[in-house]
Amino acid sequence: MADGRYVATRADYLRAVEDVLLGKPLEDDLDGARESPDWRVAVHEAGHVLASFVLEGVDDAIRASVRPRAGGSLGVTLLGADDAKSVTRAQLRDRLVLLLAGRAAESHVFRGDVSSGPSDDLMKTAELAKAIVVNFGMSDLGAAAAVGDADDAVRAELRRAEDAARDLVRDHDRTLRSVARALVKRETLDGAALGALFAEDGAPRAPDRVASAAAG
Prior knowledge:
CATH topology: Methane Monooxygenase Hydroxylase, Chain G, domain 1
Radius of gyration: 18 Å
Structural class: mainly alpha
Order of helices and strands: HHEEHHHHEHH
């Protein structure tokens, strides 16, 4: 390896995943300088991180970065691997909230002013909401949604998730800003650093996460 090591660490693998999915990090300027990470991007990723630690139905974030990438990405939050073969409606609804938490964080911190950055999140959210209603029959329409007009039920799922994301970032404002400030300062945070921030701020975590952290 470039630094003389012969054994790859988990951090090495995560960096490799980022490079493949998002492109290599942009290099510094010729004079060695690089612009500081954008505060809005940090707030957005902090929203995703916050949701991952608070919601029971999604895995904790294991890495968050606001370093611009050659592929055009300005920020990314990676979650732990989910090996579940089936998921419940509650878990899928938590995923909707997670997807919308970045946009909700922007709206919260910038007083309603959101950017075009969350467009990919919105597309994924719309697809998932439709799957919940139509593919999985998990709305009040049940299986009938597969053969009827389900637009109202899909919109209801989206409104529910958006309201939940808005409440989440508002209720955990201090932790949201702490994570965003740490991302601006360090650009990339691993799961241990993120967990430490939550511990310092005393932010509540999903019950099963608290138990596993204590066991570890």
